[in-house]
Amino acid sequence: MLRPFTAYYFGRSLIMNESPREGSLEAPERHPLDLKDPVFFDEPALFKELERVFDICHGCRRCFNLCNAFPTLFDAVDESETMEVDGVAKEVYWDVVDHCYLCDMCFMTKCPYVPPHEWNVDFPHLMLRAKAVKHKKGRSKARDKLLTSTDTVGKLAGIPVVVNMVNAANGSAVGRKLLQKTLGVHPAAKLPRYHRDTFRKQHRSNEALPLSPTDATNGKVVLFSTCFGRYNEPSLSKDLVAVFEHNGIPVMLADKERCCGMPKLELGDFDAVTKAKDANIPMLLALVDAGWDIVAPVPSCVLMFKQELPLIFPDDAAVKKVQQAIFDPFEYLALRHKSDELNIDFKNSLGKIAYHVPCHLRVQNIGLKTRDVLALVPDTTFEVIERCSGHDGTYAVKQEFHETSMKICRPIVNRVRKAEVDHYMSDCPMAGDQIANGLQDGSQAKHPMALLRHAYGI
Prior knowledge:
- The protein has four domains: 6-136, no CATH class; 142-183, no CATH class; 199-334; 344-456, Rossmann fold.
- It is an alpha/beta fold.
- The N and C termini lie far apart (65 Å).
- It has 22 helices and nine strands.
- The longest helix has 20 residues, at 270-289.
- The strands form three sheets. It has a four-stranded parallel beta sheet, with helices on both faces. Strands 8-7-9 form a three-stranded parallel beta sheet. Strands 1-2 form a two-stranded antiparallel ribbon.
- The chain has helices at residues 43-60, 69-79, 90-99, 105-110, 123-136, 142-147, 150-157, 162-170, 173-183, 199-202, 226-232, 235-246, 262-267, 270-289, 299-312, 317-323, 329-338, 359-362, 369-374, 402-419, 429-439, 448-456, and strands spanning 6-9, 12-15, 221-223, 251-253, 293-295, 326-327, 351-356, 380-385, 423-426.
- 48% of the residues lie in helices and 8% in strands.
Protein backbone atom coordinates (compact mmCIF):
# COMPACT_ATOMS: atom_id res chain seq x y z
CA MET A 1 0.00 0.00 0.00
CA LEU A 2 1.41 3.39 -0.98
CA ARG A 3 1.59 5.76 1.96
CA PRO A 4 -0.03 9.21 1.71
CA PHE A 5 2.40 12.02 0.95
CA THR A 6 2.44 15.65 -0.08
CA ALA A 7 3.87 16.63 -3.45
CA TYR A 8 4.90 20.07 -4.63
CA TYR A 9 4.28 21.40 -8.10
CA PHE A 10 6.01 24.77 -8.44
CA GLY A 11 5.47 25.28 -4.73
CA ARG A 12 1.83 24.27 -4.61
CA SER A 13 1.10 21.27 -2.44
CA LEU A 14 -0.97 18.38 -3.73
CA ILE A 15 -2.26 15.77 -1.27
CA MET A 16 -2.13 12.35 -2.90
CA ASN A 17 -4.56 9.50 -2.35
CA GLU A 18 -3.36 6.36 -0.63
CA SER A 19 -3.90 4.30 -3.79
CA PRO A 20 -3.44 6.53 -6.83
CA ARG A 21 -4.37 5.04 -10.14
CA GLU A 22 -1.64 4.29 -12.65
CA GLY A 23 -2.16 5.69 -16.09
CA SER A 24 -5.30 7.23 -17.49
CA LEU A 25 -7.69 6.99 -20.39
CA GLU A 26 -7.62 10.77 -20.57
CA ALA A 27 -5.35 12.60 -23.00
CA PRO A 28 -2.12 13.99 -21.53
CA GLU A 29 -2.17 17.69 -20.70
CA ARG A 30 0.65 20.23 -20.80
CA HIS A 31 0.39 22.98 -18.22
CA PRO A 32 1.66 26.47 -19.11
CA LEU A 33 4.97 27.48 -17.58
CA ASP A 34 4.36 30.06 -14.86
CA LEU A 35 7.50 32.16 -15.29
CA LYS A 36 5.93 34.99 -13.29
CA ASP A 37 5.77 32.82 -10.17
CA PRO A 38 8.97 33.48 -8.18
CA VAL A 39 8.88 29.85 -7.06
CA PHE A 40 9.71 28.81 -10.65
CA PHE A 41 13.26 30.17 -10.30
CA ASP A 42 13.68 29.33 -6.60
CA GLU A 43 16.45 26.73 -6.32
CA PRO A 44 15.39 25.13 -2.98
CA ALA A 45 11.83 24.74 -4.32
CA LEU A 46 13.26 23.29 -7.53
CA PHE A 47 15.26 20.67 -5.65
CA LYS A 48 12.21 19.70 -3.59
CA GLU A 49 10.27 19.08 -6.82
CA LEU A 50 13.23 17.27 -8.42
CA GLU A 51 13.40 14.89 -5.47
CA ARG A 52 9.64 14.25 -5.61
CA VAL A 53 9.64 13.47 -9.34
CA PHE A 54 12.91 11.51 -9.24
CA ASP A 55 11.41 9.32 -6.51
CA ILE A 56 8.41 8.57 -8.74
CA CYS A 57 10.71 7.85 -11.71
CA HIS A 58 12.87 5.55 -9.56
CA GLY A 59 9.80 3.54 -8.58
CA CYS A 60 8.63 3.22 -12.19
CA ARG A 61 11.69 3.08 -14.52
CA ARG A 62 9.71 2.76 -17.74
CA CYS A 63 11.93 5.43 -19.34
CA PHE A 64 15.23 3.61 -18.85
CA ASN A 65 15.77 3.14 -22.61
CA LEU A 66 14.94 6.63 -23.91
CA CYS A 67 17.77 9.08 -23.21
CA ASN A 68 20.68 9.03 -20.78
CA ALA A 69 18.97 11.20 -18.16
CA PHE A 70 17.14 8.22 -16.70
CA PRO A 71 20.05 5.74 -16.56
CA THR A 72 22.10 8.51 -14.92
CA LEU A 73 19.43 8.86 -12.24
CA PHE A 74 18.80 5.15 -11.76
CA ASP A 75 22.50 4.27 -11.58
CA ALA A 76 23.01 6.98 -8.98
CA VAL A 77 20.14 5.61 -6.91
CA ASP A 78 21.37 2.01 -7.17
CA GLU A 79 24.91 3.00 -6.19
CA SER A 80 23.83 5.16 -3.25
CA GLU A 81 24.03 4.01 0.36
CA THR A 82 20.25 3.99 0.84
CA MET A 83 19.43 2.78 -2.71
CA GLU A 84 16.73 5.46 -2.71
CA VAL A 85 16.64 8.99 -4.10
CA ASP A 86 17.41 10.45 -0.68
CA GLY A 87 20.84 8.82 -0.90
CA VAL A 88 21.77 10.61 -4.15
CA ALA A 89 24.03 13.65 -3.91
CA LYS A 90 22.35 16.82 -5.12
CA GLU A 91 25.23 17.46 -7.55
CA VAL A 92 24.09 14.37 -9.46
CA TYR A 93 20.73 16.03 -10.05
CA TRP A 94 22.49 18.45 -12.42
CA ASP A 95 23.98 15.50 -14.33
CA VAL A 96 20.43 14.25 -14.93
CA VAL A 97 19.36 17.71 -16.08
CA ASP A 98 22.32 18.02 -18.48
CA HIS A 99 21.46 14.70 -20.15
CA CYS A 100 17.85 15.78 -20.84
CA TYR A 101 17.53 17.47 -24.22
CA LEU A 102 13.77 17.96 -24.04
CA CYS A 103 12.74 15.47 -26.72
CA ASP A 104 9.44 14.99 -24.77
CA MET A 105 9.32 11.26 -25.48
CA CYS A 106 9.02 10.30 -21.81
CA PHE A 107 5.95 12.53 -21.53
CA MET A 108 4.53 11.40 -24.87
CA THR A 109 5.11 7.65 -24.84
CA LYS A 110 6.13 6.26 -21.46
CA CYS A 111 5.08 8.08 -18.31
CA PRO A 112 1.80 6.88 -16.74
CA TYR A 113 1.75 9.81 -14.30
CA VAL A 114 1.53 12.80 -16.65
CA PRO A 115 -1.27 15.35 -16.10
CA PRO A 116 -4.18 15.00 -15.56
CA HIS A 117 -2.89 12.24 -13.25
CA GLU A 118 -2.81 13.56 -9.70
CA TRP A 119 0.98 13.03 -9.43
CA ASN A 120 1.36 15.66 -12.13
CA VAL A 121 4.68 14.48 -13.58
CA ASP A 122 5.98 16.48 -16.53
CA PHE A 123 9.63 15.46 -16.58
CA PRO A 124 10.66 17.60 -19.61
CA HIS A 125 9.13 20.74 -18.13
CA LEU A 126 10.85 20.05 -14.82
CA MET A 127 14.17 19.66 -16.62
CA LEU A 128 13.46 22.90 -18.49
CA ARG A 129 12.78 24.64 -15.19
CA ALA A 130 16.10 23.33 -13.84
CA LYS A 131 17.95 24.54 -16.95
CA ALA A 132 16.33 27.95 -16.50
CA VAL A 133 17.45 28.14 -12.87
CA LYS A 134 20.96 27.09 -13.87
CA HIS A 135 21.09 29.73 -16.61
CA LYS A 136 19.68 32.46 -14.38
CA LYS A 137 22.37 31.66 -11.81
CA GLY A 138 25.01 32.32 -14.50
CA ARG A 139 26.15 28.70 -14.72
CA SER A 140 25.64 28.13 -18.47
CA LYS A 141 28.91 27.42 -20.28
CA ALA A 142 30.25 29.96 -22.76
CA ARG A 143 30.39 27.16 -25.34
CA ASP A 144 26.71 26.39 -24.90
CA LYS A 145 25.77 30.06 -25.24
CA LEU A 146 27.75 30.21 -28.48
CA LEU A 147 26.39 26.99 -29.97
CA THR A 148 22.81 28.13 -29.33
CA SER A 149 23.40 31.57 -30.90
CA THR A 150 22.51 30.23 -34.33
CA ASP A 151 21.78 33.57 -36.00
CA THR A 152 25.05 35.12 -34.82
CA VAL A 153 27.17 32.11 -35.78
CA GLY A 154 25.38 31.70 -39.12
CA LYS A 155 25.83 35.34 -40.11
CA LEU A 156 29.52 35.36 -39.17
CA ALA A 157 30.25 31.99 -40.75
CA GLY A 158 28.47 33.01 -43.96
CA ILE A 159 30.69 36.02 -44.67
CA PRO A 160 32.65 35.57 -47.93
CA VAL A 161 36.18 34.21 -47.29
CA VAL A 162 35.15 33.41 -43.71
CA VAL A 163 32.73 30.75 -44.93
CA ASN A 164 35.53 28.92 -46.75
CA MET A 165 37.76 29.05 -43.68
CA VAL A 166 34.98 27.76 -41.42
CA ASN A 167 34.06 24.87 -43.71
CA ALA A 168 37.73 23.97 -44.22
CA ALA A 169 38.36 23.99 -40.47
CA ASN A 170 35.25 21.93 -39.75
CA GLY A 171 36.37 19.35 -42.32
CA SER A 172 40.01 19.00 -41.27
CA ALA A 173 41.56 16.95 -38.46
CA VAL A 174 43.61 19.94 -37.30
CA GLY A 175 40.58 22.22 -37.27
CA ARG A 176 38.51 19.69 -35.35
CA LYS A 177 41.23 19.24 -32.74
CA LEU A 178 41.28 23.00 -32.28
CA LEU A 179 37.49 23.06 -31.89
CA GLN A 180 37.74 20.27 -29.34
CA LYS A 181 40.35 22.14 -27.32
CA THR A 182 38.75 25.58 -27.46
CA LEU A 183 35.00 24.84 -27.48
CA GLY A 184 34.65 21.24 -26.36
CA VAL A 185 33.22 20.10 -29.70
CA HIS A 186 33.79 16.37 -30.23
CA PRO A 187 36.08 15.68 -33.22
CA ALA A 188 33.87 12.84 -34.48
CA ALA A 189 30.64 14.85 -34.42
CA LYS A 190 29.29 15.74 -37.84
CA LEU A 191 29.10 19.52 -38.25
CA PRO A 192 26.94 21.29 -40.86
CA ARG A 193 28.45 23.33 -43.66
CA TYR A 194 27.79 27.04 -44.02
CA HIS A 195 26.79 28.89 -47.19
CA ARG A 196 27.29 32.48 -48.26
CA ASP A 197 24.78 32.20 -51.12
CA THR A 198 21.76 31.80 -48.86
CA PHE A 199 18.33 30.86 -50.15
CA ARG A 200 17.02 34.31 -49.27
CA LYS A 201 19.38 35.77 -51.89
CA GLN A 202 18.16 33.30 -54.51
CA HIS A 203 14.39 33.12 -53.96
CA ARG A 204 11.90 35.01 -56.11
CA SER A 205 8.32 34.70 -54.91
CA ASN A 206 5.81 33.46 -57.49
CA GLU A 207 2.63 35.04 -56.18
CA ALA A 208 0.99 34.96 -59.62
CA LEU A 209 -0.13 31.36 -59.13
CA PRO A 210 -3.95 31.08 -58.93
CA LEU A 211 -5.12 30.35 -55.40
CA SER A 212 -7.01 27.15 -54.53
CA PRO A 213 -8.01 27.46 -50.87
CA THR A 214 -9.52 24.51 -48.99
CA ASP A 215 -11.45 24.22 -45.74
CA ALA A 216 -8.17 23.79 -43.83
CA THR A 217 -5.67 25.78 -45.92
CA ASN A 218 -5.54 29.19 -47.58
CA GLY A 219 -3.49 27.81 -50.47
CA LYS A 220 -0.57 30.25 -50.08
CA VAL A 221 2.24 29.93 -47.58
CA VAL A 222 4.96 31.92 -45.89
CA LEU A 223 8.16 29.94 -45.52
CA PHE A 224 9.87 30.36 -42.16
CA SER A 225 13.15 29.06 -43.52
CA THR A 226 14.81 28.46 -40.09
CA CYS A 227 18.47 28.99 -39.15
CA PHE A 228 19.43 25.62 -40.60
CA GLY A 229 17.66 26.35 -43.86
CA ARG A 230 19.16 29.82 -44.13
CA TYR A 231 22.78 29.16 -43.23
CA ASN A 232 23.46 25.43 -43.44
CA GLU A 233 21.23 23.69 -45.94
CA PRO A 234 19.52 26.02 -48.46
CA SER A 235 18.35 22.94 -50.38
CA LEU A 236 15.69 22.42 -47.68
CA SER A 237 13.97 25.61 -48.79
CA LYS A 238 14.66 25.07 -52.51
CA ASP A 239 13.03 21.64 -52.48
CA LEU A 240 10.04 22.85 -50.48
CA VAL A 241 9.38 25.78 -52.80
CA ALA A 242 9.74 23.58 -55.88
CA VAL A 243 7.25 21.01 -54.53
CA PHE A 244 4.74 23.57 -53.27
CA GLU A 245 4.79 25.63 -56.48
CA HIS A 246 4.44 22.40 -58.48
CA ASN A 247 1.22 21.98 -56.51
CA GLY A 248 0.05 25.52 -57.29
CA ILE A 249 0.88 26.90 -53.84
CA PRO A 250 2.59 30.33 -53.89
CA VAL A 251 5.49 30.60 -51.42
CA MET A 252 6.98 33.79 -50.01
CA LEU A 253 9.78 34.12 -47.46
CA ALA A 254 9.19 35.48 -43.99
CA ASP A 255 10.82 38.91 -43.83
CA LYS A 256 13.71 39.40 -41.41
CA GLU A 257 12.98 36.26 -39.45
CA ARG A 258 14.98 35.46 -36.32
CA CYS A 259 15.85 32.07 -34.84
CA CYS A 260 12.64 30.48 -33.57
CA GLY A 261 14.19 30.31 -30.08
CA MET A 262 14.33 26.54 -29.64
CA PRO A 263 18.13 26.38 -29.09
CA LYS A 264 17.91 29.06 -26.39
CA LEU A 265 14.90 27.32 -24.84
CA GLU A 266 16.95 24.15 -24.47
CA LEU A 267 19.59 26.25 -22.69
CA GLY A 268 16.95 27.61 -20.32
CA ASP A 269 17.50 31.17 -21.57
CA PHE A 270 13.96 32.55 -21.41
CA ASP A 271 15.15 36.13 -21.94
CA ALA A 272 16.54 35.16 -25.36
CA VAL A 273 13.36 33.18 -26.13
CA THR A 274 11.28 36.26 -25.34
CA LYS A 275 13.42 38.44 -27.61
CA ALA A 276 13.04 35.96 -30.47
CA LYS A 277 9.30 35.82 -29.91
CA ASP A 278 9.05 39.61 -29.87
CA ALA A 279 10.86 39.74 -33.23
CA ASN A 280 9.07 36.87 -35.00
CA ILE A 281 5.47 36.92 -33.82
CA PRO A 282 4.47 40.46 -34.96
CA MET A 283 6.00 39.83 -38.39
CA LEU A 284 4.26 36.45 -38.76
CA LEU A 285 0.98 37.76 -37.35
CA ALA A 286 0.80 40.45 -40.03
CA LEU A 287 1.19 37.78 -42.70
CA VAL A 288 -1.42 35.53 -41.08
CA ASP A 289 -3.84 38.48 -40.97
CA ALA A 290 -3.15 38.97 -44.69
CA GLY A 291 -4.34 35.43 -45.38
CA TRP A 292 -1.07 33.49 -45.47
CA ASP A 293 -0.43 30.10 -43.86
CA ILE A 294 3.03 29.34 -42.43
CA VAL A 295 5.31 26.33 -42.94
CA ALA A 296 8.85 25.60 -41.74
CA PRO A 297 11.09 22.75 -42.96
CA VAL A 298 12.53 21.78 -39.55
CA PRO A 299 10.19 20.08 -37.04
CA SER A 300 11.73 21.77 -33.99
CA CYS A 301 10.92 25.21 -35.38
CA VAL A 302 7.32 24.26 -36.13
CA LEU A 303 7.02 22.81 -32.63
CA MET A 304 8.35 26.04 -31.11
CA PHE A 305 5.44 28.00 -32.56
CA LYS A 306 2.90 25.19 -32.19
CA GLN A 307 3.57 24.20 -28.58
CA GLU A 308 6.44 25.84 -26.73
CA LEU A 309 5.66 29.53 -27.20
CA PRO A 310 1.94 29.06 -26.39
CA LEU A 311 2.93 27.28 -23.15
CA ILE A 312 5.40 30.02 -22.23
CA PHE A 313 3.09 32.91 -23.21
CA PRO A 314 -0.41 31.45 -22.68
CA ASP A 315 -2.10 34.86 -22.52
CA ASP A 316 -0.56 36.24 -25.74
CA ALA A 317 -3.29 36.34 -28.39
CA ALA A 318 -0.77 36.92 -31.18
CA VAL A 319 1.17 33.79 -30.23
CA LYS A 320 -2.09 31.84 -30.24
CA LYS A 321 -3.03 33.10 -33.69
CA VAL A 322 0.35 32.17 -35.17
CA GLN A 323 0.10 28.76 -33.47
CA GLN A 324 -3.12 28.06 -35.34
CA ALA A 325 -1.63 29.08 -38.70
CA ILE A 326 1.66 27.15 -38.75
CA PHE A 327 2.00 23.68 -40.29
CA ASP A 328 4.55 20.98 -40.84
CA PRO A 329 5.08 20.94 -44.63
CA PHE A 330 3.83 17.39 -45.09
CA GLU A 331 0.90 18.07 -42.77
CA TYR A 332 0.01 20.90 -45.14
CA LEU A 333 0.33 18.73 -48.24
CA ALA A 334 -1.75 15.99 -46.58
CA LEU A 335 -4.50 18.52 -45.88
CA ARG A 336 -4.37 19.60 -49.52
CA HIS A 337 -4.63 15.98 -50.63
CA LYS A 338 -7.68 15.49 -48.42
CA SER A 339 -9.40 18.16 -50.52
CA ASP A 340 -8.09 16.68 -53.81
CA GLU A 341 -5.70 19.60 -54.27
CA LEU A 342 -2.46 17.59 -54.33
CA ASN A 343 -0.77 16.71 -57.60
CA ILE A 344 -0.30 12.92 -57.62
CA ASP A 345 1.18 12.66 -61.11
CA PHE A 346 4.52 11.16 -60.12
CA LYS A 347 7.30 10.39 -62.59
CA ASN A 348 9.65 8.31 -60.42
CA SER A 349 9.17 5.65 -57.76
CA LEU A 350 11.23 5.80 -54.57
CA GLY A 351 11.62 2.11 -53.69
CA LYS A 352 12.10 1.11 -50.07
CA ILE A 353 12.69 3.91 -47.56
CA ALA A 354 13.84 3.76 -43.95
CA TYR A 355 11.94 6.64 -42.38
CA HIS A 356 13.17 8.04 -39.08
CA VAL A 357 10.37 10.03 -37.41
CA PRO A 358 11.94 12.88 -35.37
CA CYS A 359 10.82 13.36 -31.78
CA HIS A 360 9.79 16.98 -32.33
CA LEU A 361 7.55 15.85 -35.16
CA ARG A 362 5.96 13.11 -33.06
CA VAL A 363 5.22 15.64 -30.31
CA GLN A 364 3.05 17.61 -32.75
CA ASN A 365 0.47 14.78 -32.68
CA ILE A 366 -0.31 14.97 -36.39
CA GLY A 367 0.42 11.35 -37.27
CA LEU A 368 2.83 10.15 -39.97
CA LYS A 369 1.92 12.71 -42.64
CA THR A 370 5.34 12.49 -44.31
CA ARG A 371 4.92 8.76 -44.85
CA ASP A 372 1.29 9.20 -45.92
CA VAL A 373 2.19 11.69 -48.65
CA LEU A 374 5.20 9.76 -49.94
CA ALA A 375 3.13 6.56 -49.88
CA LEU A 376 1.13 8.05 -52.73
CA VAL A 377 4.19 7.54 -54.94
CA PRO A 378 3.83 4.17 -56.74
CA ASP A 379 6.12 1.30 -55.73
CA THR A 380 7.24 3.00 -52.53
CA THR A 381 7.43 1.17 -49.20
CA PHE A 382 8.62 2.12 -45.72
CA GLU A 383 10.53 0.91 -42.70
CA VAL A 384 9.23 3.38 -40.09
CA ILE A 385 11.58 3.99 -37.14
CA GLU A 386 10.14 5.85 -34.17
CA ARG A 387 13.16 6.30 -31.92
CA CYS A 388 15.15 9.32 -30.81
CA SER A 389 18.36 9.94 -32.75
CA GLY A 390 20.02 11.55 -29.74
CA HIS A 391 21.17 14.62 -31.68
CA ASP A 392 19.19 17.57 -30.32
CA GLY A 393 21.08 20.19 -32.31
CA THR A 394 23.90 20.65 -29.79
CA TYR A 395 23.93 17.59 -27.49
CA ALA A 396 25.54 15.34 -30.11
CA VAL A 397 28.38 17.74 -30.92
CA LYS A 398 29.52 18.33 -27.34
CA GLN A 399 32.68 16.57 -26.20
CA GLU A 400 31.10 15.11 -23.06
CA PHE A 401 27.89 13.87 -24.70
CA HIS A 402 28.75 12.80 -28.26
CA GLU A 403 29.49 9.15 -27.55
CA THR A 404 26.31 8.85 -25.50
CA SER A 405 24.33 10.42 -28.33
CA MET A 406 25.72 7.89 -30.80
CA LYS A 407 24.77 5.08 -28.43
CA ILE A 408 21.20 6.42 -28.35
CA CYS A 409 21.21 6.49 -32.16
CA ARG A 410 22.64 2.97 -32.55
CA PRO A 411 19.25 1.13 -32.69
CA ILE A 412 18.22 3.39 -35.60
CA VAL A 413 21.50 2.77 -37.39
CA ASN A 414 21.13 -0.99 -36.93
CA ARG A 415 17.59 -0.97 -38.31
CA VAL A 416 18.62 1.05 -41.35
CA ARG A 417 21.43 -1.43 -42.05
CA LYS A 418 19.17 -4.43 -41.59
CA ALA A 419 16.36 -3.02 -43.76
CA GLU A 420 18.57 -2.80 -46.89
CA VAL A 421 16.74 0.22 -48.23
CA ASP A 422 17.11 2.41 -51.30
CA HIS A 423 16.99 5.58 -49.18
CA TYR A 424 16.95 6.56 -45.55
CA MET A 425 15.43 9.84 -44.47
CA SER A 426 14.40 12.04 -41.57
CA ASP A 427 12.34 15.24 -41.46
CA CYS A 428 15.07 16.58 -39.16
CA PRO A 429 18.26 17.18 -41.19
CA MET A 430 20.42 16.99 -38.05
CA ALA A 431 18.96 13.61 -37.13
CA GLY A 432 19.69 12.48 -40.69
CA ASP A 433 23.33 13.53 -40.27
CA GLN A 434 23.47 11.67 -36.95
CA ILE A 435 22.29 8.45 -38.63
CA ALA A 436 24.80 8.91 -41.45
CA ASN A 437 27.51 9.42 -38.84
CA GLY A 438 26.55 6.12 -37.26
CA LEU A 439 26.45 4.20 -40.54
CA GLN A 440 29.97 5.32 -41.53
CA ASP A 441 29.51 4.00 -45.06
CA GLY A 442 29.72 7.24 -47.01
CA SER A 443 25.97 7.44 -47.54
CA GLN A 444 23.88 10.53 -46.85
CA ALA A 445 20.40 10.82 -45.41
CA LYS A 446 17.77 12.33 -47.68
CA HIS A 447 15.21 14.88 -46.64
CA PRO A 448 11.65 13.72 -47.45
CA MET A 449 10.98 16.89 -49.45
CA ALA A 450 13.98 16.14 -51.68
CA LEU A 451 12.59 12.65 -52.30
CA LEU A 452 9.14 14.04 -53.08
CA ARG A 453 10.72 16.48 -55.54
CA HIS A 454 12.53 13.56 -57.18
CA ALA A 455 9.27 11.60 -57.36
CA TYR A 456 7.67 14.54 -59.21
CA GLY A 457 10.65 14.70 -61.56
CA ILE A 458 11.17 18.45 -60.98
